[in-house]
Amino acid sequence: MMRTGVNMEFRCIQCGDTYALDDILYACRRCGDLLDVHYDPQELERRMVDTDWKARPLGVWKYSVFLPFPEDIEPLSLGEGGTGLHRCRRLEKELGIHSLYVKNEGENPTGSFKDRGMTVGVTKALQLGFKTVICASTGNTASSLAAYAARGGLKCIILVPAGNIALGKLAQAIMYGAKVLAVRGNFDDALGLVGRYVEEGDVYLLNSLNPFRIEGQKTAAFEICEQLGWKAPDRLIIPVGNAGNITAYWKGFMEFQSLGIVQGLPKMVGVQSEGAAPIVKAYNLGLSVLEPEPNPETIATAIKIGNPVNWRRAIQAIRDSGGLAISVGDEEILEAQKLLASKEGIFVEPSSATPLAALKKLLKAGRIDPEETIVCVATGHGLKDPEIALKGCKAPLEIDVDLDSLRKAVEA
Ligand code: F0G
Question: What distance in angstroms lies between residue 140's CA and the mean position of ligand 1's atoms?
């Protein structure tokens, strides 16, 4: 069906109902489930032939032919994407595996993967003529939206769970000029509240139930394939909170495979914290509906989420890819965070250390073939959450301004 003139439309993930991309809606009008952007493959093939997209520099907008805009769109950008895919040889040795990479999304402009979704989502907000944007957030969505809203001259409203957001993220959101509101409740409460508020009118919602967010985030999967020499990895290990990102990666890998750009698909491993693991539970018990976790608890505040909106799509990605779901404890997370920083020079926030913690656990249990090409997604920078990092470290040794104390201290 051709609704937008570019052969793209929203399609309900459950009943398949379709809508125009300029329709302002975040769920299917018929059945209430979430929406995906669906492309006519022939249109994508035509766009690919018509452009030299492979020659463009790495980054979200390199892949504009696969994004839901006309090709001449002027994006609102801060230079997002194009992040490093770092081979981790010292960790390979430590873990006894053949090939391990970390996709370091902390290299994005506001320090997390959210910038990929926000450059696309806020570009759409501007195209639709909105003056105000809103989200609920555990912190990174907040800081990213606040930055892009500032750059686009939009008013930005942010709801965070009171007392449960890492210091760096709070500082960012406030500095970018957003109206930051601390809700006396958890993330799930805040998201529910935002959902009710946007029904009242003229505010654009930029949580990951907005399909444009997913479109931007899928470009990380494209980049990984390209960085591996136009090949999909054997396995992708990724933290899961509200489950938008695992959904986005899977969509990206599937699109590249179905267009013949890469052969094969990775097995998707979704990782949650033990105290906030409703998807792991649903997947491993084969439940047909999610049982929300009413009191999520973990030091990884980014993924402290009990009722993830994208749960159905996460489970589908894990199942269809032949992957698995696993949870890790706070101690394992902190240990992995230190290991990644001290062995490879990659400092991530706690939630972003969950893939490495999961990898260690899976290797120990013999559930992963050590010969695989494995990519762990490091979703956010370590400086986002300095308090947790410092809690687990020794304070620096103080010395006098003399050479003798320096020598003694170095040898101690
Ligand atoms: N890692 C980090 C650093 C995050 O900030 C988040 C989510 C995730 C992983 C999980 O991604 O929700 O797509 O499964 N943070 C959201 C926020 C919820 O509000 O910043 P997801």
Answer: 7
